[in-house]
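queue> holo job accepted (nicotinamide-adenine-dinucleotide)
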Amino acid sequence: MSVFSHPEFDQHERVAFRHDAASGLKAIIAVHNTRLGRALGGCRMWPYGSDDEALTDVLRLSRGMTYKAALAGLPQGGGKSVIIGDPRRDKSEALLRAMGRFVDSFGGVYVVAEDSGTNVADMRVMARETAHVGGLADKKALAAGRSGDPSPATALGVFVGLRAAVRFAYGREDLKGLRVAIQGVGNVGYRLARHLYEAGARLWVSDLHPPAVERCVREFGATAVDMDEIVAQDVDVFSPCALGAVLDERSIPRLKARVVAGAANNQLLRPEHDGLLMARGILYAPDYVINAGGIIDIYYEGPDYDRAKVEAHLQRIGATLTEIFERARRERRPTGEVADRMAEAIFKA
Ligand code: NAD
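queue> job finished
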């Protein structure tokens, strides 16, 4: 397994491996770029099939965090960490503390936060070994309105971004009667559904978990849709808020919506699917731009947490997306590609 010649290696500043025999920890931390500031990124715990799979993930995800922070207008770099193991079987206090010491060995260059397979309680355990843990709402921040859960900020950011996309694609400000299909109404999708409902939109929803759908039917008058059919609904906006890789050569031709704007990470199966969306005249809000509300919220955490400041920053997601859409139209390039170039101009400047 090589690092420097790995296909996902992209000028990463630092990649470190740690094995702790006593706790069984096997982990990798990758810091992609710190030109704008300390590298913030979640710690994913996953039963990777091989070390190479774990390395691929950490290299790719840490790079993504650099782009995300740059376009979110945060003075922050990109990093990520992975723990190789099954979070339900292999997680222990000793392992999390060993991970905390590993994070600490970066001396603050890398700041860890929760991700799939880890949670805020795990972060508190790591915080016994290192001060470099993000996403821990302290008591004062909670009193000032921070929930500790980034989903409300993510959902509000997606709502702001969806509005900007609708304005650009359909020339309309008012969301009354706008038809939106949401794939996945979990933490973010449910809150997005509420914002849309309050703005007068009509909703179609699907979820793996039937009670999540029923709640939206009951509370927002949403129409329940089969999981396989949600992409093909006759709506104005398709909003993927469940899993990644939903946009590919099979799903894109089925889309009737002219806007794709949702919270899910890595919505495109491959980067070139961006071009396929453009060719079909579908406006795609690049996922890492529209779903940056969570890291924006974490950036403002701390004793001086001010909800109004966070909300003002979240509104900027709309302006950034509009700039991306305008440039993409002018230059006849896909929006995802334009977003990447704009991010690079910020963090490489
Ligand atoms: P979540 O687990 O709370 O919700 C996801 C929902 O999708 C669940 O209700 C699940 O049952 C459902 N689901 C899974 N597979 C499905 C399928 N095939 N069809 C329909 N529904 C399906 O997760 P979340 O926190 O709401 O995050 C949603 C997405 O947004 C994820 O891709 C996540 O990575 C991304 N995201 C979340 C945040 C955040 O702050 N939570 C921030 C940035 C990005």
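queue> The CA atoms of residues 57 and 82 lie 8 Å apart.
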